[in-house]
Design a protein that fits this description.
Elements: H1 2-7, H2 18-52, H3 63-69
Transmembrane segments: 20-39
Keywords: Membrane, Transmembrane, Transmembrane helix
């Protein structure tokens, strides 16, 4: 039975993705690009909020601000 499956396997030249495979590939590429753009947007928003002290941490003070206050 296993020998029949091995002998019935298609040749490498017979297996092609076709136009549906190309469309799925492009859709996956677009999905990754949109997710990357969204992640970047959310990370910038979270960094801005962390700098403002929204998450309960003390706000970040720049080194230049510390030197002028002394």
């Amino acid at each position: 039975m296993i020998v029949d499956l091995v002998l019935a396997a298609p040749k490498d030249e017979d297996v092609v993705a076709g136009p549906i495979g190309f469309v799925i590939f492009i859709a996956l590429c677009l999905a990754v690009a949109v997710l990357g753009w969204s992640l970047n947007k959310h990370l910038k928003k979270a960094h801005r909020a962390a700098d403002e002290g929204v998450f309960g941490d003390p706000p970040v003070v720049n080194k230049t601000d510390e030197s002028t206050s002394d």
